[in-house]
Description:
Elements: H1 2-19, H2 30-49, H3 51-57, H4 60-79, H5 90-100, H6 109-116
Helix pairs in contact: 2-3, 2-4, 2-5, 2-6, 4-5, 5-6
Amino acid sequence: MKRFILFLTFAGFVTTNASAGGLFQDPTDPELLVTSCTEALQLFEAFDTDPNKKKFTTSRNEAFYSGYCIGRIEQYKQTVSYCGLYDPSWFSIAQVIVEAQKHGLPDTAQELLESACE
């Protein structure tokens, strides 16, 4: 019985994220990184204006995308010594990633991270 409940819980999680395109999107796609960082910036900017708003208005998809953005940036900063050297916050790097969309995106998310850290 416990296995069945666990399966249903997992199936619900996969269905929720798959319907938003979150779980099955290509992690090398720069659009996923831009979308995720946009969500993260909007979420934390809303938190700055009203701390109580964040915990009541955050959906699973917003949390998923925000976590993806922050995680990708933090992981990249650990592997590349110069990333975040002058401004180590993930927030400032996420801002550069979102702004990069205006100038045309590179082919991969890795290239987008590299350009954001220059």
